[in-house]
Amino acid sequence: LAASASSPEHLARLDVAARTDVDLAWRVATGRAALGQYDEEAVESLLARDSDPDAGVRALAVRTARPHSEAKDEAWEELFEKRNIPGGPMLGAMVRAFWQPQQHDVLLPYADRFLDEIPALAGGGMLAVFGLMFGMFPQVGDEEFVARAQDMAADPECDPTVRAALLIGTDTLARIERSRAA
What is the distance between the alpha carbons of residues 12 and 25, in angstroms, rounded to a whole number? Predict the structure, then answer.
């Protein structure tokens, strides 16, 4: 429910349940932010309540979920430029917060931006490639993006791990787009 709640009734039920579950509270805050209901006070309260060392990343994920390019830019900088997000569950939380299905228009420019990052990722180690390439592979894109990604994969100089990520990612994106159109 936390991943898909959109009605006031669902959000109210989640708020009650989140009073005693800080993990759920973070997910609810992220879901609300994705709906345009970002609450800085709630995030600050969660940071004070959560002793987990990853609480700062969770707060970033909440900010990332907002339907604004400024929010996506902040996340992009932490993920790709500073490389401050550890792999595993925190990277997963950031990926889910970033690629909000209902934010297609906000996210579309990040598809090409993702391809621009590939040279910096290639050769950066298998974990970095797998984490960022597979995790942050765009979940939105147009035909030009797909063609550009496939051209990159076809390049004989393309790193095999990057090639695999590009081919799997474009195939997955094509399936997502077909299901959205149906």
Answer: 12
Dist. CA 145–CA 5, nearest whole Å: 31
HEC per residue, 42-96: HHHHHHHHCCCCCHHHHHHHHHHCCCCHHHHHHHHHHHHHCCCCCCCHHHHHHHH
How far is Cα 64 from Cα 70, in angstroms, rounded to an integer?
A: 9
Cα-atom radius of gyration of the chain, to the nearest Å?
Answer: 17
Which among 103, 85, 92, 117 has a CA at the least distance from the CA of 33? 103
Tell me the one-letter amino acid at 84: N
Give the span between the Cα atoms of 66 and 32, in whole angstroms: 8
| pTM score over 0.85 | yes
With residue 112 as reference, give the H or E element that holds it: helix 104-121
* DSSP-assigned letter for residue 156: T
pLDDT digits (tens, 9 = 90+) for 73-113: 999 999 999 988 988 899 999 999 999 989 999 999 999 99
